[in-house]
Amino acid sequence: MKTWFITGASSGFGRDLAAAVIAHGDRVAVTARELGKVEDFVQDYPLQAKAYRLDLTQPETITQAMAEAHRDFGGLDVVVNNGGYGLIGALEDCSAEQILRNIETNFTGPLRVMQAALPLFREQKRGHFINLGAAAAISNYAGFSVYGGAKAGLELASEAVAAEAAPYGVKVTVVIPGPFRTEFIARSLDRAAGHSGAYDATAGKFLSFLEKVDGKQPGDPAAAARAIIAVVDSEKPPFRLVLGKYAYQKARRQLDKLRAELDAWENTGLPTDFTA
Ligand SMILES: NC(=O)c1ccc[n+]([C@@H]2O[C@H](COP(=O)([O-])OP(=O)(O)OC[C@H]3O[C@@H](n4cnc5c(N)ncnc54)[C@H](OP(=O)(O)O)[C@@H]3O)[C@@H](O)[C@H]2O)c1
């Protein structure tokens, strides 16, 4: 039996994962900005679930929730950096406050979660981070500069943490979903504060696309939860777990594009080393 710690367990992926973890027979520390949104897990499964308040923009709530969960469960096996939200709009239209808050939630906060768990993982000589990335970090869209940038940052920071902590038995997996039917578009998508009108054909078009697709996203978060559990249970988990047909096709297209660009510019970029 494993013990999980999940941020943003109030809805979407986090909630479905917590439910699947309980059904799998594991234990879970469900965390949320508002405790009331996760207390049902504790009421329904008092032997398997405990709830803690955690806001990714409030560092003290991260260290406190981690310390309390460690104390209550006597150890943690899987820490899931799931909490996050989108910021949609052209970079020029986003306010400084919006940019900072998004990076704090999607990048700095998850790094702090890893910092809080790493001493325990090292001491246990085991532990697995599951960090939610995004298809926007495979290749980005007009309108997602901050969100996609923060998720790409988390993905690459995760790669470094994986290399640093591997000698202590610590594993890291970045989960990369395409569009999934959660509350992400309806509730977790901050709109740029400004509207210059200069980006209606690019960032504006992407926002219209997202609004149209809401409720019809192909991805099933309950199936994603089962895939994440399978990865955690596997002997050799991947560093990247791409979820759903949309993201798989996107990742393969991006690989082809990278290869083609490397080939096309090799004669210019390659001969730039010292010759002796
Ligand atoms: N759905 C998709 O298509 C998709 C695709 C790629 C990546 N993702 C990623 O998947 C993760 C989960 O999103 P979702 O799709 O499940 O959307 P969701 O249903 O809207 O859930 C978002 C979760 O993040 C939490 N959250 C937001 N700000 C937070 C903060 N400051 N501190 C702690 N928790 C915070 C929310 O808590 P509250 O209830 O308190 O707001 C909620 O639990 C996010 O990291 C998102 O970027 C989603």
Task: Provide the fold topology.
Blueprint: E1 3-6, H1 12-23, E2 27-32, H2 39-44, E3 49-53, H3 59-73, E4 78-81, E5 86-88, H4 96-124, E6 127-132, H5 145-165, E7 170-177, E8 189-191, H6 203-213, H7 221-233, E9 240-243, H8 245-264, H9 266-269
Parallel strand pairs: 1-2, 1-4, 2-3, 4-6, 5-8, 6-7, 7-9
Helix pairs in contact: 1-7, 3-4, 4-5
The protein binds NADP nicotinamide-adenine-dinucleotide phosphate.
Brief account:
By secondary structure, this protein is of the alpha/beta class.
CATH class: Alpha Beta
CATH superfamily: NAD(P)-binding Rossmann-like Domain
How many domains? Answer: 1
Beta-strand segment tally: 9
Q: Order of strands across the widest beta sheet?
A: 3-2-1-4-6-7-9
CATH architecture: 3-Layer(aba) Sandwich
Number of helices: 9
**Uncertain segments:** none
First-last Cα distance: 58 Å
CATH topology: Rossmann fold
The hetero molecules present are: NADP nicotinamide-adenine-dinucleotide phosphate
Describe the structure.
The chain has 276 residues and is an alpha/beta fold. It has one domain: NAD(P)-binding Rossmann-like Domain (Rossmann fold, 3-Layer(aba) Sandwich). It is 47% helix and 16% strand. It is globular and about 60 Å long. The site of NADP nicotinamide-adenine-dinucleotide phosphate has 31 residues, from helix 1.
